[in-house]
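Subgroup meeting minutes
Present: P.N., E.W., G.H.
Scribe: E.W.

1. P.N. recapped why we're keeping a running log of single-chain structure predictions: easier to compare across weeks, and new members can see raw inputs and outputs side by side.
2. G.H. added today's entry (197 aa).
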Amino acid sequence: MFLNVDQVNNNKLIGLEKVYPVLKEEWDAHSNEIEWRDFTDYQQRTIAHSHQGHEIDANEFNSAPIVQPNQKCKWSIAPLFYNNIPYTRNTTLLPKIRKTMLWLGETMYVGMVKLAPDARLGWHYDPDPNPNTQRIRCQLPFNETISTLSVRSEFRPYAEGKLMIFTSSAHHCVQNMGSNDRISLIFDLFRKGRGIL
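Output recorded in log:
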């Protein structure tokens, strides 16, 4: 289900949309220098096998192919933080985004995610790490594109600079119907207890 900031116990998230123009300016200046990793095959395998989305472990994360310039792939990630550790290859280029995530205190998993034109990630879910901890996904679109996010029976279009929050353990799917890549800052929150569902 979709959530609002009041439901996730981090009021700093309200400020994310306010600083978006500064983050976007930094992104536009350095996006051509960022290292992307291709997770298309990994995501297709996990969704096809169990309808489960990316529970990317450290080995998969480090061994995912690096996307070469002008290489096309369906779904790729430019890692920024993994297990609270900055991916310095990218965060050095994006110090304002790095500082913003540190200020938010949400650095377990952070990345820029690219979905190619006419690409779709079918219905899937991302499991919670354990019965007492809930995963909450935040997405901040960084460009204009015709894309949608569906969570259970709710359907929403992406809007540049507008934060979307949802419980990723709920079945969801994303689709890019536009002619350009959909690029979003995506990060996960982890909350103790099961009171949000």
